[in-house]
Every structure is written in structure tokens, then in C-alpha cells.
Task: inverse folding
């Protein structure tokens, strides 16, 4: 995220906008706080594009700013986000995915994200994933993790992919959701019937997901408001009660999956009438 933000700052500087990453993140937080106060929801993409517009207006006359210019600036950020994801991919990511595929040849692997991070756009790992569901997809927005709606859409797409592979869907499937965010990944998916694995990578990789709470130093790229961070604390604690497994290293994920899948299948009702 930091690399993408730096790339965006360089691009904005090149077109006459001398903002800083700190000022840009403050603008995003103000936008998010205003949306919360007004009870409105915007996609993360639209929030970032609005922030780009507001920062441009500080240095360039509004009449000289075009929608195309804002979109082009946003695309610089998004493309560099995926470049950075490739650059900083944990070294045991691919071996972990390969092991899962070997252990479960018919497995269907999907990504569920609230934003635009998409493994299908990453050359190194795209072939391991069958589909991606984003909180910005038309059939999902304005719902996003931990809301059950985004998980229901994921289950519907799983059913579609499963049938396309010529498989007959039974009444029981082993649905395992893996994520580093207690509230969004573990709690949200478990409430929908998944067996959830919490990937707590703070000690092994210095991953910051477990520190996204109030009164903790946040990464410079974080745009979460103080109220949002406070709300996460109780959600995180509740999620810990719902997780099936906790791993501290990516190489342990295939083992956790084996243990869960061998213990019992997870019954999931694909209720397509309540999407």
C-alpha cells in the first residue's frame, strides 16, 4: 500500500499537485468520517478518487481538473498496488498454494476482498485462484466484510464455478475461509457457516492486521478513522471465539486445512433466494 501511495504522490507532483502522503491520508479519513456521520457509503475506489480531486483542487483551479485526470491518477495507484503485492509477496505463498492444490486437487480457491486487491491480476499467483469477489462488485456493494451478504455472493459464484467444472453440488461442502483480519475474515465468515482460519502473521512477518485497533500506532497508509478502530476491538474479541484454527506461518495453512477437512464437512445452505 505504501508503494502505491508513493507512486500516486509522484504522479500528482508531476501534474502540479504538491500534496504529501500524510495530507492525502488525512483527506481520506475526513471523507470517511463525513460519510459515517451522514449514514452514506461509497466504494473505497470512489473515496480515493474524491480525495484525489480534493487534493488537486488545493493546487490547481477546479476548472482545469478533468474526470479523466482523476481517473488516470487513481489508475496509477491501483496498478502500483498490484505491482507492490507481487514485489512483497511472502516467499512461502506459492509453496503453500501448491501444497493445498496437491492435497485437494478439486479444491476451488477464491479471494474475497472489500477493495480492489485482486490475485487474478497478479501473474505469480493468478493460476491458483478460480474467482475473486470484491465489495465493489455490482452484486455486492454496498455490502462488504464482515457483512454476510458478500459471503453469500461468494457462495453463489462458487456454485456457478463448480457446475462449470461439471461437478454436481451436494448438500454438504467443506468451506474454509482463511484471513488475517479477525473481525472481517474470521468473524464474518464463521457466522455464515465457514470454518475459519486466522492467519496471525505479526510475529513471523511483522504483519500489522492484529494492531488495527484504537490506541495503537497505525501504518502511514491506514485511512481507518478512530471510531472505526474502536468498533473493531469488540468484533475482534468475538471473532476469536469463532475461529477454527490459528496459524502463525503460511506454511502451516495446508496442515490446518487438512485437520479441518478430515474432522468433518461444514454444512452450508446455499440459499439463493435471500441474496
Result:
Amino acid at each position: 500500500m505504501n508503494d502505491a501511495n508513493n507512486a500516486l504522490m509522484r504522479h500528482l507532483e508531476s501534474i502540479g499537485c504538491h500534496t504529501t502522503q500524510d495530507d492525502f491520508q488525512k483527506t481520506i479519513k475526513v471523507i470517511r468520517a463525513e460519510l459515517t456521520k451522514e449514514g452514506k457509503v461509497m466504494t473505497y475506489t470512489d473515496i480515493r478518487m474524491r480525495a484525489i480531486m480534493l487534493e488537486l483542487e488545493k493546487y490547481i483551479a477546479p476548472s482545469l481538473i478533468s474526470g479523466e485526470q482523476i481517473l488516470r491518477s487513481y489508475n496509477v495507484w491501483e496498478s502500483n498496488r498490484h505491482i507492490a503485492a507481487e514485489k512483497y509477496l511472502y516467499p512461502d505463498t506459492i509453496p503453500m498454494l501448491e501444497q493445498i492444490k496437491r492435497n485437494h486437487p478439486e479444491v476451488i480457491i477464491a479471494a474475497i476482498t472489500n477493495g480492489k486487491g485482486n490475485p487474478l491480476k497478479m501473474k505469480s499467483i493468478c493460476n491458483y485462484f478460480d474467482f475473486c469477489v470484491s465489495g465493489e462488485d455490482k452484486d455486492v456493494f454496498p455490502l462488504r466484510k464482515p457483512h454476510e451478504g458478500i459471503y453469500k455472493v461468494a457462495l453463489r459464484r462458487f456454485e456457478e464455478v463448480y457446475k462449470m467444472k461439471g461437478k454436481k453440488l451436494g448438500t454438504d461442502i467443506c468451506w474454509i475461509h482463511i484471513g488475517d483480519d479477525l473481525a472481517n475474515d474470521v468473524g464474518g465468515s464463521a457466522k455464515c457457516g465457514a470454518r475459519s482460519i486466522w492467519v496471525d502473521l505479526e510475529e513471523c512477518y511483522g504483519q500489522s492486521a492484529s494492531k488495527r485497533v484504537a490506541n495503537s500506532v497505525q501504518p502511514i497508509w491506514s485511512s481507518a478513522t478512530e471510531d472505526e478502530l474502536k468498533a473493531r476491538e469488540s468484533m475482534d474479541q468475538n471473532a476469536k471465539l469463532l475461529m477454527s484454527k490459528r496459524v502463525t506461518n503460511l506454511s502451516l495453512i495446508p496442515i490446518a486445512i487438512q485437520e479441518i477437512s478430515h474432522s468433518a464437512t461444514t454444512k452450508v445452505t446455499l440459499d439463493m433466494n435471500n441474496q
